[in-house]
Design goal:
The chain has 148 residues and is an alpha+beta fold. It has one domain (17-141). It is 22% helix and 8% strand. It contains seven helices and three strands; from the N terminus they run ααββααααβα. It has helices at 9-12, 20-25, 68-71, 94-99, 109-112, 117-120, 132-135; strands at residues 35-38, 46-51, 130-131. A hairpin with a 7-residue loop joins strand 1 and strand 2 (46-51). It starts with 8 loop residues before the first helix and ends in a 13-residue tail after the last helix.
């Protein structure tokens, strides 16, 4: 029997054409979109190492994803029609890559078949974040992440 050689959905469907399951699977689980950002007058938006209080520091997943807007009203919900406007998404983000017509990295769970691969590749925020309740001033936590 011939092997299925159909290209994966992220190469054939637009962001808007994806099923909810396909949409969610584009998230690599890095946790970087859950980091606080700082806008300093006259300077580009800066990314900190301070995570949203709902981000699980080990799994790099939201601890209350279904109700996140209830607890964090300014949480940005990613949508197909707004991905192009979010220039703060990391260059490794699956949503951003697909929007830009690029392929996913080999460490992405959709390619590796393993959620841990994003952590093993040192792409996630695991082990590199501070909780927002302990952080204090966000300006003190601006970090030069390599993929922003």
């Amino acid at each position: 029997m011939p092997e299925d050689t159909a290209p994966p959905f992220w190469k054939t469907k637009t962001l808007a054409q994806r099923s909810p399951e396909e949409w969610e699977s584009l998230c690599d689980g890095c946790g970087k979109c859950c980091l606080h950002k700082v806008q300093i007058k006259g300077i580009k938006l800066k990314i900190t190492n301070v995570a949203c209080r709902l981000l699980d520091a080990h799994t790099c997943q939201c601890s209350n994803y279904a109700q996140r807007k209830k607890f964090v009203p300014d949480c940005v919900v990613l949508k197909p029609e707004t991905i192009g406007d979010l220039d703060w998404l990391p260059t490794t983000c699956g949503y951003r890559l697909v929007h830009e017509g690029k392929d996913l990295f080999d460490w992405h769970p959709l390619k590796s078949g393993r959620p841990e691969s994003v952590h093993e590749a040192k792409i996630s925020v695991r082990g590199r974040i501070v909780g927002e309740r302990k952080a204090g001033s966000l300006v003190q936590h601006i970090v030069a992440w390599k993929d922003y």
